[in-house]
Amino acid sequence: MIVDTVLVAYGSKRGGTAEIAEWIGDTLRAEHVTAEVRSAAEVRSLERYGAIVLGGALYAGRWHRHARGFVRRFHRTLPDHPVWMFGSGPLDDSADRVDPDKIFGARAVRKAAARVNARGYTIFGGRLLPDARGFPASAMAKNSAGDFRDRARIRAWAAAIATDLSTPPAR
Predict the structure, then answer these.
(1) What pTM was computed for the model?
(2) I want to staple 11 with a disulfide (CB 3.0 to 4.6 A). Which of 41, 66, 104, 164 is the partner?
(3) PANTHER family, alphabetically (predicted)?
């Protein structure tokens, strides 16, 4: 299947997931796939897009509200597109070591992926800055601050999507 433009949409509160979305978009473009990265809250139509990558931060076991809202808004048309989903959030290296289904909060991403017949989903590590503001982030930052996003793993996942999208259908 050859796709014109891929939408990489995200829900992010502190910018870490938005940055993952940018890395995915950069990787797709490096693989000669046209990609547009946008906040999931801003997207009003999927008309211009041939495929969708949707991500959201995981907070207290919930997928970011903008990612959930995106799925609600487009649940009828998403199954007409190739779709991949991701969550980001574990503040340790567990996302790189264990089955995504075993990550706290992954259930929400898995259910959304099943709802729209997504081709795949995964969970990436998260990022929490030491100077995070607000409760509970500031309390968590005292013990769990750090960047647990594996850029190489994220880029490899995006490159696999580009390969899938660039492969003509079998005859």
Answers:
(1) 0.91
(2) 66
(3) PROTOPORPHYRINOGEN IX DEHYDROGENASE [MENAQUINONE], PROTOPORPHYRINOGEN IX DEHYDROGENASE [QUINONE]
